[in-house]
TrEMBL record:
GO terms for molecular function: G protein-coupled receptor activity; odorant binding; olfactory receptor activity. Coiled coil: none annotated. Putative odorant or sperm cell receptor. Pfam families: 7tm_4. The keyword Cell membrane applies. InterPro entries: GPCR_Rhodpsn, GPCR_Rhodpsn_7TM, Olfact_rcpt. This is Olfactory receptor. It comes from Canis lupus familiaris. Belongs to the G-protein coupled receptor 1 family. It is a multi-pass membrane protein. The chain crosses the membrane at residues 27-51, 57-77, 98-120, 132-150, 162-185, 197-225, 237-260, 275-292. Keywords: Cell membrane, G-protein coupled receptor, Membrane, Olfaction, Receptor, Sensory transduction, Transducer, Transmembrane, Transmembrane helix. It is found in: Cell membrane. GO terms for cellular component: plasma membrane.
Length: 309
């Protein structure tokens, strides 16, 4: 009877970031600015790459895909968070909660795969420059992008499917600002041990695989650069790869801390801070990290501004 009643529970309550009234307006304005910058920066970068034929090469196709995923990831989480600052009711239907998590899981996982493919692209460009156009053709680039999205979709389907085995009867209060999987496990009245195992296996495997791809790619890049012993070549290579390494470091730190650490070490406030970093902060930083240090992007931007001046 208890299980039957639990399945009838169709609404949850998201606590949000703060209960302090004095912080609501400053936080709302700050995250609104972040969100607007995220959308303008990422969609602007996509438009720039789309309109400039010189940027229709693998490196920038990957960058455009990353910008799309960042805009998607932020749009999955931030609007709902902004509304919750002033909403009288912080309830979210169970179906809406599942959809939000599904969208988040696709975009976050796809970003992991895209960061790995971008590292491989830089490895081929620097370590095999003569055969780069043959190895990294636009056809292969598009296939890698599609596989990244497919990987994100399959990963989201796995965890969403296992979420449907859970029931919520002990509490409907989710201590988070969006429907993430770990906070949902914590309020389940069904034993979530299998779900935790699935997260550890699949999320852990994806993160280990993509991080190893990045590390191996850049280790080989480093050895190639050091063998050349050319100061100009070293500066150019580090300029090309530095932004990507910085972005990868920022993105993977919170993800590893969130999903691959022991269950007992998880704290609600720390989880929210980690989630805030890779769902709100990283998407607004990526366009600046990649654009401001990229000569071709800056030149393309100048040309576009002159045409519309």
């Amino acid at each position: 009877m208890e299980k039957e009643n639990a399945t009838l529970l169709m609404e949850l309550i998201l606590t949000g970031l703060t209960h302090e009234p004095r912080w609501k307006i400053p936080l709302f304005l700050m995250f609104l600015v972040f969100y607007l910058l995220t959308i303008v920066g990422n969609l602007g970068l996509i438009a720039l790459i789309w309109n400039d034929p010189q940027l229709h090469i693998p490196m920038y196709l990957f960058l455009g895909s990353l910008a799309f995923v960042d805009a998607w990831l932020s749009s999955t989480v931030t609007p709902k968070m902004l509304v919750s600052f002033f909403a009288k009711s912080k309830t979210i239907s169970l179906s809406e909660c599942m959809i939000q998590f599904f969208s988040f899981a696709i975009s976050a996982t796809t970003e992991c795969f895209l960061l790995a493919t971008m590292a491989y692209d830089r490895y081929v460009a620097i370590c095999k420059p003569l055969t780069y156009p043959v190895i990294m053709s636009n056809t292969l680039c598009i296939r890698l992008i599609l596989l990244s999205f497919l990987g994100g979709l399959l990963h989201a389907i796995i965890h969403s499917s296992f979420l449907f085995r859970l029931t919520f009867c002990n509490s409907i209060i989710v201590h988070h600002f969006y429907c993430d999987i770990i906070p949902l496990f914590k309020i389940s009245c069904t034993d979530p041990s299998i779900n935790y195992l699935m997260v550890f296996i699949f999320s852990g495997s994806i993160q280990v695989f993509t991080i190893l791809t990045v590390l191996v790619s850049y280790t080989l890049v480093l050895f190639t650069i050091l063998r050349k012993k050319s100061l100009q070549g070293i500066k150019k290579a580090f300029s090309t790869c530095g932004a990507h390494l910085f972005s990868v470091s920022l993105y993977y730190g919170p993800l590893l801390f969130m999903y691959v650490r022991p269950r007992s070490a998880q704290a609600d406030d720390q989880d929210m801070m980690d989630s805030l970093f890779y769902t709100v902060i990283i998407p607004v930083l990526n366009p600046m990290i990649y654009s401001l240090r990229n000569k071709k992007v800056i030149d393309s931007m100048r040309k576009m501004l002159k045409r519309h001046a």
